[in-house]
Amino acid sequence: MKLRTLRFYGHSDDTFGYEEIVDGSDRGDDHDNCNNGSLMAFKITSKDEGMIVTGQYAPSPIPDGTWVVGITLLKEDSPLPNWPMKWGTSDLVYSPSLILEAPDDAVIEDITNSGHED
């Protein structure tokens, strides 16, 4: 199975997103919440599996000036896929990064403003 590498991390105090290298150039997407402190999220799905990657800037009690990057399930009864992933520091020292190897057919959707899914 061919994989694509996605790197999720926060920028400044208001933008969370991902990047991937495709044919030697970066592509990706990000969400700007105008520094309102809300949680931002991307849903990644492939076939019948997937996960949600989240980012939030300095929620209490996290130290001001740093990002929280996390993952969660698509639904309470859906396990996380067995996709290779690792944590690191992004090029921006104030944000950790999640580096995820998703299947090549993975669909990435910004669900920040979509509300709960049933």
Please explain how this structure is put together:
The protein has 118 residues and is mainly beta. The protein has one domain (3-110). The chain has strands spanning 3-11, 15-22, 25-32, 40-46, 49-57, 67-72, 85-89, 96-103, 107-110. The strands form two sheets. The protein has a five-stranded antiparallel β-sheet with strand order 3-2-1-8-7, with no helix packed on it.
The number of domains: 1
The low-confidence runs, each spanning 5 or more residues with pLDDT under 50, are none
Indicate the overall shape: globular
Order of SSEs:
EEEEEEEEE
Integer average pLDDT: 89
Oligomer: single chain
Largest sheet, order of strands side by side?
3-2-1-8-7
Instruction: Report the portion of residues in β strands.
Output: over 45%
Query: How far apart, in Å, are the first and last alpha carbons?
Result: 30 Å
Class derived from helix and strand content: mainly beta
Q: Helix amount, in percent?
A: under 10%
- The helix count comes to 0
**What is the radius of gyration computed over CA atoms, rounded to a whole number of angstroms?**
14 Å
**How would you characterize the largest beta sheet?**
5 strands, antiparallel
